[in-house]
Write a structure and sequence with these properties.
single chain; 259 residues; globular
């Protein structure tokens, strides 16, 4: 692979994304080039440290912990959750990623080697970040959309958690759509990265397919754990969001909404 050609292709594609978003007057068109720039920097640093990390399971664990911390910060910002929720959210992401990984290694589907721990763990942590961000944003929108229904339930004496249950279920279903569709269309619409990477690395296609199935199943399980935990944590907010730019689901349970 020619490094110069890679730089040229990435630069042209980043410029194309920026131009289209700017012409359409969408929000923050500079975010796409910045995202590419960050990816270049982060992948460069990752390439430098991976050799040492892959040789030691302890360092793999440290690396995954850093990933969970970074994912937590992204979800807090995207879902507009207060920073005081960071420990609980990090715990959700950690458990959601750890459970499917424990199943994979306990069943012997993959050998408990640092490289597999990092490969599966990194993908699953990334998926939990996406699911959690979608859950938080979708729940905030659903609480606004269903405001009249929720207040009607409260007027009848329902608890905040019961009154918001439909909104929580709607948000959870929405958050799971991308990972579910990715799994359903694998091999037909998309060639997933884990499969392609394994084939390019020299693995037989059947073995690569098995690895990809493990990854996809882990992503679905982690996503289900995420929405269940976040539904409990965010499912009884103190008040309904007002629908403004800073709207986000409140997280303290036990009090009724205020108008």
């Amino acid at each position: 692979m020619d490094p110069v050609a890679v730089v040229v292709a990435v630069s042209v594609l980043a410029a194309l994304a920026f131009a289209i978003v700017a012409v359409l007057r969408l929000e923050s068109p500079w975010l796409q080039p910045i995202a590419i720039g960050r990816a270049v920097l982060q992948l460069g640093l990752l390439s430098l440290v991976l050799t040492g990390v892959l040789a030691d399971g302890v360092w793999v664990g440290v690396f995954l912990a850093v990933m969970v911390g970074a994912a937590t910060a992204v979800v807090l910002r995207r879902a507009r959750l207060p920073w005081r929720d960071a420990p609980r959210l990090a715990g959700v992401l950690l458990v959601a990623a750890a459970v499917p990984m424990a199943v994979v290694f306990a069943t012997g589907a993959l050998p408990p080697e640092p490289r597999y721990l990092l490969a599966v763990g990194g993908i699953v942590v990334g998926s939990t970040m996406t699911v959690s961000s979608l859950m938080g944003r979708s729940l905030a929108a659903a609480l606004v959309t269903d405001r009249d229904e929720i207040e009607g339930w409260l007027a009848l004496g329902a608890t905040p958690r019961t009154a918001a249950l439909r909104a929580v279920r709607t948000a959870a279903s929405t958050a799971l759509i991308p990972s579910t569709d990715q799994t359903r269309t694998t091999g037909i619409v998309t060639l997933p990265g884990a499969f392609v990477g394994a084939v390019f690395a020299g693995s037989p296609p059947l073995e690569a397919a098995g690895f990809q199935l493990i990854v996809l199943a882990s992503i679905l399980a982690a996503g289900a754990i995420c929405v269940a935990a976040l539904g409990w944590l965010l499912g009884a907010p103190t008040q309904l969001p007002d629908g403004g730019a800073d709207a986000g689901p409140a997280t303290r349970p036990g009090r009724r909404y205020s108008k």
